[in-house]
Amino acid sequence: MTTLDSSKEIRKNNSEVNEKHEDYRMFGLITFLIADGMTFAGFFAAYLTYKAVNPLPDGAIYELELPIPTLNTILLLVSSATFHKAGKALMKDKNSDSQKWLFFTAALGIIFLICQLFEYFHLPFGLTDNLFASTFFALTGFHGLHVTLGTLMILIIAWQTRVNKGRVTSQNIFPLEAVELYWHFVDGIWVILFIILYLL
Amino acid sequence: MTISIDPQQTNNESLQPKGWLRYFSFSLDHKVIGIQYLVCGFLFYLIGGTLASAIRIELASPMSDFMPRDVYNQVLTLHGTIMIFLWIVPVVNGAFGNYLIPFYVGARDMAFPRLNAVAFWLIPPSGLMLVASYFVEGAAQAGWTAYPPLSITTPQSGQIIWILSVLLLGGSSIFGGINFIATIIKLRRPGLKLMQLPMYCWAMLGTSLLVVLSTPVLAGTLILLSFDIIANTGFFNPILGGNVVVYQHLFWFYSHPAVYIMVLPAFGLVSEILPVHSRKPLFGYTTMVFSIMGIVVLGLVVWAHHMFTSGTPPWMRLFFTIATAFIAVPTGIKFFNWVATLWGGKISINSAMLFSCGFIINFVFGGITGVALAQVPFDIHVHDTYFVVAHFHYIVYGGTVFIIFSSIYHWFPKVTGKMLNEKLGILHFVITFIGFNLCFAPQHWLGLNGMPRRVAEYDPQFQFVNQISSLGALLMAISTIPFLINIFLSVRIGKDSGDNPWNALTPEWLTSSPPPVENWEGEAPLVEEPYGYGKQFSEQK
Asked: Under CATH, which architecture does the B26-509 domain have?
């Protein structure tokens, strides 16, 4: 047992000399988001190739209605801003303000998902109708999955910023920052998706 | 902002089992995880090797008499998938990367130890699932490439399990890649510059970049393919208006870099082994670094050379031919640097060195056939023949697997504190080298004469050459026996190696063998010249 104790002692000393690094957790998250972005890049590449080389049969081209996706774009952009507000508030130790902004952000995310489902049910085509329909559902569905996960994470963070008992505070702000970066990423993907899928 | 990592918190050793039991635990220690990767990978190598033997037994006669045709298809699919995703990628990245990278950067563990453990523990279940899929309606039959429409029309449950398994392994690979990048970039010991890192770090940095950038595309593609199989969509199904060539583009966008994911770490490992055993500094460190990064960049833009017969337009053929031929430049630089490292060195002929030299010989041969295959007229002639099989195995077996064995001989004393038996090691090398070349060199001739790959039957005129090839495969199978005997004997009764049996200068040897849990008693050493061999000698001159 003495060796174990002495090694602990050594570690303790070393943790002051050797174990100090700048916070690399955000770096790891960015690397992950680049990987995640490549998945979307693959989907976008497939969609654009289909559009260029696989013409749809006559009568199969569907004009997408713009109002709902435009509303969705606004929702997500606003939610990015509210999330940013939440971070600012937490930095100033205003936990309850931060929590309010987070719940607001999560609500925007949920409204986005409801609008998306509403659009799904009112589209004139289904998943297997043609190549365009399948790619549309694959792209928006994969993005919707990201929004769902993001909303869940925002709710968890909001719960953890509660006054006095929460684990996310101005001293431990990384969880909030990580989810914020992820949420901005999901937003950015939506903007690209909106341009490529609806406007092009 | 700085955080201080308390080893107590990241790696609570009082909760970790001791002794050999720790290899069966959810350990967070990078050294334990590295060995877990290696042993798990080797078990799958034995399974994949058994399947390869079954293929060679079948091909010893021109008729399909050893097994039914659909079983043959399953066997070759499982052989390819197991060898690539469960043996080479996990071992050459995960095993050696996990064991060595923290030593090389002067850290006590990887950047994200828990993610590291997750990445490993995704492998055994997905591997077992893949093997078990044989017993559920038969395994996947569409080859490791799973090209549609073949993968859509063959029995589906096997293909679905195959997709699920490859998705999990891809996830494991991405988690590992993120971890390696963060460790190498962010966890370096203070004072250690990037250009002072051992070459394997650079190789792993390049490899991990490829993993992070290309593996997600494969994941997305396989999700779309699974939709085609399960939900009856038509992404890649021409009957429903889909496009099979899109699958090929997306698949090769991952799977060409995957070749570099399999071979770049081997480049790094051989760059560690050659200087130690020839007592000379690694020749051309800077050019090595730039050629690795050159290979990473070029490796991402050459994928369509696998598709010259898929109706690619002429401009695409031209572009991908030129880009592919360009990869020969950085690869050639590395080859000449290794030879220059050996040149005039004080070479010790031991098993590690022999396997490394075997690597150089095999690899240059595979590289030359690779440049030949990049040329469209030649590629169209030999596409999907045994020439491609021979080329691929020269790179992946003759290259990477030789280096895996070389590394095992080199780092076995580090891990266990015991030496491996040299006589058995040299026997292992001789049988492997002869068996490998006997098995795959004749396949070039078979391919040039038009024997297609992935078919259980062939023209009887090829029988004699195929039997030579099968004889080589038999030798390769036999070569595993001295290796396994060597490992088991040496772990038990091998002679003690001391801390640094090779008098190496790279950081992992500057601690006890086997190393303590915290890697160093005290501060991590600052190794500014990991290859400073023979310095005094040259200065005296």
From this structure: Up-down Bundle (1.20)
